[in-house]
Design a protein that fits this description.
Elements lengths: L2 H13 L2 H8 L3 H15 L4 E2 L6 E2 L1 H29 L4 E6 L1 H7 L1 H10 L4 E6 L2 H10 L4 E5 L7 E15 L4 H9 L4 H4 L3 E4 L4 H16 L5 E3 L2 H9 L3 E6 L4 H5 L4 E3 L8 E9 L6 H13 L4 E3 L1
Parallel strand pairs: 3-4, 3-5, 7-8, 7-9
Antiparallel strand pairs: 1-2, 5-11, 6-9, 6-10, 6-11, 6-12
Helix pairs in contact: 1-2, 1-3, 1-4, 2-3, 6-13
């Protein structure tokens, strides 16, 4: 049983004529007749009552037609789905990211992506740096959003972003008040206060932990490890300080809910974020488009590529 036979039968049943079916399918009338005859032999009975002005289905034809219609419709859906995949209208984007980075770097590109690719599935998995690399090797994700540096030569960098790291507190925090009074604060001033630590690159983590160690020698601060999603709300309470990428809570600063600190003697550090994938793995069109959307959203932070 061949597809052409099923198409000839379905179209003849719809048109009630071998000739009109042939015209619709771009075939000759003898070709249509031959296909249906072959199909009837395979099924063991006639599909049409012949001899009248219009062909009518036999009982066998009536019983068989719904299955043929469903088969052809399912095949048409499959072809459309395949074409949509090729065109990038369907598929999947899977990305593993540091939680801090995902919270502020992904929402806006995702908003644009959902508009342009509404039928494409999207998955975000929150992982640590080494887990992101493992997920790429295992094929669980096709993209990673991780902190620099990167030493694995099998991982390809699609975008490299860099931004300043800033100390940030609530406007009513003692450090904000001190800064208002004298125009700056010093690193020693941080030692008396709780420091919230979130997952960033190793250099920033080392600096934050170093500040906390100094605080423990004094009379105050402690290092509190918190998920990024909690940082904003803890800072709003006015009880601690965080050292974060500048963009992470910029909207809260613009809204007057938080304020940056100018720490006069704090080393200048930058948070570096990489968009990466496994070298040699072909990316589907939606994934390539999402990379471009991330680059476009954060073009002011791009440092290469």
């Amino acid at each position: 049983m061949e597809l052409g036979q099923l198409e000839a039968f379905e179209r003849t049943a719809r048109e009630g004529s071998f000739t009109r079916a042939a015209d619709e399918l771009g075939l000759t009338q003898p070709s249509i007749s031959a296909r249906i005859s072959t199909l009837e032999k395979e099924l063991g009975g006639e599909l049409f009552e012949r001899g009248g002005r219009r062909l009518r289905l036999t009982a066998l034809g009536q019983a068989f037609l719904p299955y043929v219609e469903r088969t052809l419709a399912l095949l048409a859906d499959g072809i459309q789905t395949a074409q949509s995949h090729v065109a990038g209208q369907l598929g999947q984007v899977a990305i593993a990211s540091l939680d801090t980075t995902a919270l502020y770097m992904l929402p806006e590109p995702m908003k644009r992506f959902r508009t342009e690719f509404p039928a494409v599935d999207f998955t975000i998995k929150l992982r640590m740096n080494h887990q992101i690399i493992d997920a790429l090797y295992d094929g669980d994700v096709t993209l990673g959003l991780m902190g620099a540096p990167l030493w694995d030569k099998n991982i390809k960098i699609y975008a490299h972003f860099q931004e300043p790291v800033r100390a940030i507190v609530a406007p009513n925090h003692p450090l904000a008040i001190l800064q208002h009074e004298q125009g700056y604060i010093e690193l020693d001033d941080l030692y008396q206060h709780t420091i919230y630590r979130v997952t960033l690159n190793p250099r920033i983590t080392a600096m934050v932990e170093g500040i906390a160690e100094q605080a423990r020698q004094g009379s105050g601060g402690a290092l509190v490890y918190v998920p990024s999603i909690m940082t904003r709300h803890l800072l709003y309470q006015g009880s601690g300080v965080a050292i974060l990428p500048e963009q992470f809570l910029m909207q809260s600063v613009k809204d007057g809910m938080l304020t940056y600190l100018t720490v006069q003697d704090m080393p200048t550090l930058h948070n570096e974020t990489l968009v990466v994938g496994l070298r040699g793995r072909e990316l589907n069109q939606p994934t390539q488009a999402f990379i471009q959307m991330i680059r476009a959203q954060w073009r002011d932070l791009l440092v290469r590529g």
